[in-house]
UniProtKB/TrEMBL annotation:
Gene3D superfamilies: Tetratricopeptide repeat domain (1.25.40.10). Coiled coil: none annotated. It holds the Pfam family TPR_19. This is Tetratricopeptide repeat protein.
Length: 573
């Protein structure tokens, strides 16, 4: 008669069962099995770590951290416990502690793949993309046959083409790697290759049908492919077209995202529908606010008009996103022509050439400025796309053995000089000098966009820049006080955004008030509305970011205060 299994053996069997359940997304069942394993053998660190991992996936970070710390106290060299603690610190926004703990896990595990993968991930969560890419390259060099390493490398790439290449290498090593399939499907959709996106997203969906994110990716790709291939139909035609092209299982999976076409559309484009509904509600609220008394409407209408104005940019971003994807496809085809011919062809379709032609036409025929302004606006957007693509290509080709050394040195130099020169007395003197300069220009050139009567616009701009500077100093102080808490990162981001807003206000005012007067009556004056559009849109976006951060910080402070009141009330007898 065989001996009965020991508690350790029963715990190991339950741990394997928990891991199998976690692999298919049944987290609650996985938690139950892990708890049974920990109860069978309370001293078994593997069972407790499996339970901590499941709890972390369920969002119960505090319980997971307590279990991992207990294991680390028992086994100081446990790389698994270190990884759990590093991931928890990263989720909480304690990025420095997360990076250090991940490095300890790499040392404790002699550089195993999972620890290196986590180190790259926490670098990226901390905003250090160069560090994330350095660690991903080291991971691929150490484990060249591991598909997940190339997936991590693809996630750190700036250029879509480089990311696609890394995803394809991962699929060469593991054709059924669902992360590589989903990532390559997302890149294909971003590059307007919707047929490829549907095929890849369907493969990723078959690998993990329970993943709602992959279901939504599949539905979005399928709708766009149907729309652009002109075979979309609100009822049976959509599923039939998918079945004819990709097979019946693909069509059934598409139908499973909703009982009707409207339900499938809502599932795929829920975020876009919510944004559109909010924008329409704000627009209706403006109409209602105009009927209120003048004293109220003069305050309410501008506040509602700002998000409505920003919302007008959404269709343009979507439109130019399609243009960018189409241009990436064209660029990939032009590269096949050979080096000299491809260079000439790519230059001919770049935004720089269109911008040069538009400016030349605008200066040559200023009377027809209304006709040439629109090509110039399109040329500016295309040029920005070109610059972003060239920057990403440069970032992916430059050496990364010393991560960000030059950037950090320049940042330290700029910060030291900013602390020395941007003091309140000097900013106040700048405001006075700007007001005097504008007053002098008022006598020399007609006023163009002055501020309130008797107060030059440059004075208003300087005062706003001074207020932004003060807010940045307050945010820096609050960042130091908050330490590694998530609100510390929010305060830091608020400070950086306020300084960017201050510089944007200065650029907009210099162009609009000073520059507009200097070139008054000159043909170049026709360019000024176009030049003002860039800082105006950028300033609106920065105002939105400031408002979002302030609301987030206010909500966090309110929640913290309510929790304190609740704890004090709970402690009372």
């Amino acid at each position: 008669m065989a001996d009965a299994p020991t508690p350790r053996q029963r715990a190991d069997a339950l741990v394997e069962r928990s891991r199998a359940l976690a692999a298919i997304g049944r987290w609650k069942d996985a938690e139950a099995q892990a708890r049974r394993a920990a109860a069978e053998d309370p001293s078994h660190t593997r069972a407790r770590l499996q339970l901590a991992y499941v709890l972390a996936q369920l969002g119960r970070t505090d319980e997971a951290v307590e279990l991992a710390r207990g294991v680390l106290a028992q086994e100081p060299g446990s790389a698994w416990a270190m990884r759990l603690l590093a991931n928890a610190d990263s989720v909480r926004g304690r990025h420095a502690e997360a990076i250090e703990m991940a490095r300890q896990a790499v040392r404790a595990s002699d550089g195993d793949a999972l620890s290196r993968l986590l180190l790259s991930t926490v670098h990226q969560r901390a905003g250090d993309l160069i560090g994330a890419r350095v660690e991903a390259e080291a991971l691929v060099a150490a484990f060249p046959d591991w598909a997940d390493g190339f997936v991590r490398l693809a996630q750190t790439r700036h250029s879509p083409d480089e990311a696609v290449q890394a995803y394809r290498e991962a699929l060469r090593l593991d054709p059924e790697n669902d992360d590589a399939l989903a990532g390559l499907a997302g890149q294909s959709r971003a590059m307007a290759r919707y047929r490829d996106a549907v095929e890849l997203a369907w493969s990723a969906l078959r690998a993990d049908v329970a993943d709602r994110g992959r279901q939504r990716l599949f539905a979005r790709s399928a709708w766009r492919w149907l729309m652009l291939s002109r075979i979309v139909s609100p009822t049976r035609g959509a599923a039939r077209a998918l079945a004819d092209t990709f097979g019946e299982p693909c069509a059934r999976a598409f139908q499973a995202t909703g009982a009707h076409a409207a339900a499938r559309l809502w599932f795929a484009f829920r975020v876009e529908a919510i944004v559109l509904a909010v924008w329409l509600a704000l627009l209706a609220a403006i109409g209602v606010a105009t009927q209120l008394p003048d004293a109220v409407s003069e305050v309410v209408v501008p506040l509602l008009a700002l998000p409505v104005f920003i919302g007008l940019a959404v269709p343009f971003f979507v439109f130019f996103g399609f243009i960018a994807a189409a241009r990436r496809q064209l660029d990939a085809r032009l590269q096949r022509l050979g080096r000299p011919l491809s260079w000439l062809a790519r230059a001919a379709v770049s935004g720089v050439l269109l911008m040069a032609l538009s400016i030349a036409a605008l200066l040559a025929w200023p009377g027809a400025a209304g006709w040439w302004t629109w090509p110039l606006l399109v040329a500016i957007v295309l040029t920005v796309q070109d610059l972003v693509r060239w920057r990403d290509a440069w970032r992916d080709t430059r050496p990364t053995t010393v991560p960000g050394q030059t950037r950090r040195a320049l940042a330290r130099w700029a910060d030291a000089h900013a602390r020395r020169w941007l003091t309140p007395p000097r900013l106040a003197a700048f405001v006075v000098a700007a007001a005097a300069a504008e007053t002098a220009l008022d006598r020399w050139a007609p006023a163009a966009g002055a501020g309130a009567p008797g107060v030059p616009a440059m004075a208003w701009a300087g005062a706003l820049a001074l207020a932004c500077w003060g807010g940045e100093r307050l945010a820096r102080w609050r960042t130091a006080a908050a330490g590694a808490a998530p609100r510390g990162a929010h305060w830091h981001e608020l400070g950086r955004t306020l300084m960017a807003l201050a510089w944007t206000v200065a650029a907009f005012t210099a162009l609009g008030v000073l520059g507009g007067r200097v070139v008054a009556g000159h043909p170049v004056e026709a360019l000024w509305p176009v030049l003002l559009l860039v800082p105006m849109v950028g300033g609106a976006w920065l105002v939105y970011r400031v408002a979002r951060l302030v609301l987030r910080l206010a909500a966090g402070a309110t929640a913290e205060g309510l929790r304190g009141l609740w704890r004090r009330g709970a402690r009372r007898p």
